[in-house]
Amino acid sequence: MACRFLTPLLLLFAAAAAAAATFDSVPTTAFDEGYTPLFGDNNVVKSPDGRNVDLVLNRWSGSGFISSDLYHHGFFSASIKLPSDYTAGVVVAFYTSNGDIFEKTHDELDFEFLGNIRGRQWRIQTNVYGNGSTSRGREERYLLPFDPTEEAHRYSILWTAENIIFYIDEIPIREVLRSDAMGGDYPSKPMSLYATIWDGSTWATEGGKYKADYKYAPFVSEFSNLVLRGCRTSPLQEYPSAGGCAESDADLAAAEFSAMTPAKRAAMRRFRERYMTYSFCYDVQRYPITFPDCDVVPSEQEKFSRSGDVKVRLERIGRIRRRSNRRSRAPKRAVDGRQAQV
């Protein structure tokens, strides 16, 4: 159930939806034209028209699909509807990676959705790895300003030679700028696009406290509006020639989703201030030296503890405000000539 305290940003998302032509105009790809099942073949269920696909997790298997090609830079997007009810231990992922090819020096850009017990929200995290930098994970976690199980929302990753942008619907929630100081930690090798659903009971929900319960199975994640836009390349080309992707890179740069306007930056700042629950940039216990690509914002930083976690849990704020709203709507009666709450 969506929290009442999330309403202000819902208006922001509604405004973004009104300008959805930015994303809706991007051509989508039929499943068989751009993807192939990765595992759990019987749990990869295509729609009759081949435009949509459901990924299913049951007691026998999870499932996933992968792009048929690798891409050196690109825009990768899908509308995703997450499973409802009890989903503890369930992990849905939408990400780019080349780990199957470069096992020790892989690059990766992640959206991961972490299920929860009944009555609690799904959580989302993003991460960036470059050149095998798994010991220096650039992880961030967020709550969502809507119920992702009621209807599909669009999740997108833009990856260029200069920056990386994570989008939810038309709102950018995170930008990573390439810098010399970041060095090889910036993803640079061709990657495939993946989507998966699987059992992460050992860690996904409160560090493994709550496990997947298959009496609520099957867990179904719906994918639609699939987008693959970028420079297709061969897995043998670790670093494609600049000329080989010049036209595709120019096409990406000219697209409206690549432009970080002042309005987009303001929307991103509002989202992060309200819904980010962890940032590696503020985790001084794990990373005493701040990463060179961190954009430390004092007003944002003061909300986080030394562990990088937000000091006041947003879910608790939501419960407090809902109780306050219920009290404000309670009927009243007169007591000694004064109005008092029943």
From TrEMBL:
Listed GO MF terms: hydrolase activity, hydrolyzing O-glycosyl compounds; xyloglucan:xyloglucosyl transferase activity
Ranges where the GH16 domain occurs: 21-223
Region described as Disordered: spans on this chain: 321-342
Keywords of the record: Apoplast, Cell wall, Cell wall biogenesis/degradation, Disulfide bond, Glycosidase, Hydrolase, Secreted, Signal, Transferase
Endpoints of the signal sequence: 1-21
Protein EC: 2.4.1.207
Coiled-coil residues: none
GO biological-process terms attached to the record: cell wall biogenesis; cell wall organization; xyloglucan metabolic process
Listed name of the protein: Xyloglucan endotransglucosylase/hydrolase
Species this protein is from: Iris pallida
